[in-house]
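input
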Amino acid sequence: MTQIETEQLRETLAIAQATIESSERFSRHGLLMQAFMDGSAQLAWLKDERGRLVWANRRWFEQFGIDESTAPDKTDFELFPEAEAQRIRALDLEVLGGHTPQHSIETMLGSDGRELSWRVTRFPFHDAAGQRYVGGLAEDDTERVRQHEIAHRQSITDNLTGLLNRHGFDAQAAPELLRARRRGSSCTLVCIGLDGLSGVHVRLGSAASDALISLASMILRKSFRTTDIVARIDGDRFAILAPDSSGEVDVIRRRLQAAVAELSANPILEAQFDFRIGLLLCEPAGSESLAQLLDLVELQMTAAS
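output
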């Protein structure tokens, strides 16, 4: 063998050795990354542009009860129910069509059937060959979402009656009024004042006046439909928006009067109990805001006293 051939062989061996070492290093790094992600509390996954699962960590497989040995190369449509798969694929395609990560809060069912909320990040990338992928990371956000929902409910709920408060009424009734106008449908706006509350408070104390308010709220729940929006907007005042109630103003009035009369006839009740009622039919052609309509119906209620 000539010296030139010897040198060429040495170079070939050196390249082969470097390739082997690089491959081993890559393998070690890959195993280390797999161990790292398997120990993470996050879900992690990788799919190709056709939606086939390339890789996921152990937490992902455990969360969805999917067999780790058979899932690779399967699409979401082979792993999840149809509706869920369509939702996921739409999000993946949106990510693949862009160039930036996308964040969302998503609700998913776990392997035990519990509904969990996840803070999800999806991001696009491609390899050296130009193949496109979408990666995902998800962190369990169920407790934070639950606490947020509790705080939101408390912010829109009257503590004494469990009805909506003024803030809750505005938040729900204003959009419903706009929807009714778009549909060409009428709503009935009702404002109710509780007569004699201050006298009850003076004579019998706050517990008695609170009981009277609670009784009033029970009457209103009984007198209106579950689709009607009922709220206690102030100490002795209640407001109700009844969608799709064209021509029912007199019906609502009679129903309220009958409920109050029935309760007032109860010998256990130690106080004079009555409602002041204002009712306003909100036609679809109207342009007044909910606040303006409330002012109008409260004038009616005051005039009824």
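quick obs: The radius of gyration is 33 Å.
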